[in-house]
Amino acid sequence: MTKAITVAGLHKSFGRTHALDGLDLTVEAGEVHGFLGPNGAGKSTTIRVLLGLLRADSGAAQILGRDPWTDAVEVHRRIAYVPGDVTLWRNLSGGEVIDLYGRLRGGLDARRRTDLIDRFELDPTKKGRTYSKGNRQKVALVAAFASDVDLLILDEPTSGLDPLMEEVFQRCVEEERDRGRTVLLSSHILSEVEELCDRVSIIRGGRTVESGSLADLRHLTRTSVTAELAGPPNGLAHLPGVHDLDVQGHRVRLQVDSDHLTAVLRSLSETGVRSLTSTPPTLEELFLRHYQDETEQVAAR
Amino acid sequence: MTTLTGTGTLLRFALRRDRVTTPVWIAVNALMVLSMPNTLQSLYGTEAERADLVRQLETNASFRALIGPIHDTSLGGLTAWRVGVYAGLLAAVTGLLVVVRHTRDEEAGRAELLASGAVGRRASLTAALLAAGVANGVLALLITAGLANQGAAGALALGVGVGAVGMVFATMAAIVAQLTESARLARGLTSAVLGAAFVLRAAGDSAKSDGSSVWTWLSPLGWLENLRPFAAERWWVLLLFTAAVSAQAAVAYVLAGRRDLGMSFFPARPGPAAGRLGSAAALAWRLQRGGVLGWSLGFFLAGVVYGGLTEGAADLVGDNENAREIFERMGGRGGLTDAFLASMVGMLGLVAALYVVASVLRLHGEETSGRAEPLLAGPVGRLRWAAGHLTIAFGGSALIMLLAAAGFAVGYGRQAGPILAACLVQLPAVWVIGGLAVVLYGLAPRLAPAAWGVAVAVLLIGWVGPALNAPQLVLDLSPFGHLPKLPGGEMAWTPVLTLLALAAVLTASGLAGLRRRDVT
Description:
The complex is a heterodimer. Chain A is α/β, with parallel strands linked by helices.
């Protein structure tokens, strides 16, 4: 598999703020890659470096095998970008803007344009100033999905969309993946990322803190276990990797590091199990763990 | 009254937001008025000279159309004549800008946020009108105090009259802002009414020499003349202002009470579902064509008007030694007609500098509003994107100067060739200002709006500098000061070519900076 995006040790500061502090990111061709991080973590800065709008202070970045700064125009022919906050020209209609972006990239698929406008329930005759936030996003989404490109860079693209449109958006991303296109999806909506993404990178403070498939990431974290036992539990508290143990009579609730799960299950079955539920960590829990570390750090300061 | 809850907070907020722009408008206006007695003193120092001037002007309808009739030969009376209408115009623009800014903010979603707070339905309109009232009140006070030594009653009449014109158009803007959907349209429509008021007054004054024409009485700017500051003031005219301001404010309040936030009585029309724009240059033209059209029309009409005045101007100035000197310093040597033409063309050149700055700074506006980002994330190189707008900026300034020349040809009918040359010779200086704007935008985008400061400074140097006997050092700061004085003067290629080269270097360095810097 070739790489659509490789970023290594990227640094970028604005005055005294270090927006990127050695960020790494690898996106394989053909995958949908989730790009997660709290506000101000550096997601948009990374994307702007990848688009050749910002020049990195140091570090390497390649996009579709080229340099994002020097080969910007060439690279951009094969990219579609949707910003998180779309602003339109007040006196241009949505349809005009969609066609402008399409023509700049060398033409739109007219049938797909009609189909997308239909699915997103967009009125293309309205002028830029009269669109609501969600509808402005739709204009940019239609322009991006209707163009024939290899890589879609979506920076919190669904802000302002209602749940029905969110659903349409997810179908569109899946269709893009089925056609073999690569998608970099920066998002705060974790269910969206969980549903769509093959791999995710979590960044914080301008650095990558986790990267891998969701299965990989889950492996690194804890599983919650709830069990109804035949008798009182025995020795669970002394097992390695067990956290938040809560015993009420024969009922047990606990969290366990994924690589110690076997030992916990063995101990439970020794006592005798009447019922058992085990839930893998949600992305939300993964995410919160990284966020909470940060809040604790802030509190400690 | 609960509909006014929060007015005080909103007013303080409005005054804080305006703390730079409005004082600048007021200061420029007051300076223009208050410097006039000195200028007139140096031009027409004695009562006899002034009487002479009036005798000639009374017979010249074009001059009355442009400036208004003279009602008194005292320095105060001449000041009111020379700047009254224009001070009223400036005050009107100040007032309408303030009101539109603080009532049509809902476009940016800010009004919604404010309205959801503990703010009454009429609070925002009241705060906007009060802000305009404060601005016009301060202006009236400055004029009254500054001219008091020419006669307290006249100074008071002129100050209050100018402020009252400001309030007439502030309240009119309040109505228009309720009817339209965008701030831009509201400003445009109110300005159009202001333009119409000027034209009505001009028509009336050219018809009658004492301001008694019905056309003059239809225009608030005409009321200001007919208030007759420094010439046996007719205080009752202030009742007209009061009536207009209260009637318009009442209408605005009724409309504000009925209107939903964000709605308007003239909703925007839908546009085409598909577009034909296919390049960054086409988009730039689409965004700027309205501006280019407006400026072209304005320059053509200005050419026609000044062309029409040329004949009379030579007669008028011919007898006054000081005025001739001024004209010669401002413009050319030789024949007075040439001198007049040269100074009028030079003035248009200075105004064209404002066009070129506005047009170049479109790049800055597109970038800061976030509209440039998705374009530059497409296959559009930065230089190609900038080139689209710069072609319109630099080419457009050539176009408007050509149209000014065409206007002169229509209005004056002679010397078409030399006037065309005079118009074109302004371009190197205009382009230097444009180049400066490109440099600021390319190298220090945060300072880009300072290009306006440069243009205004150049305008002041060219406009007021010669009349104030400014030292050559200051006059030389402006690129316009180095241009050959055409028609009439010798064509000098060295400064023209030097300025052209300078403009090219500035533009190129600005573009090089744009290519290298971060786009935000």
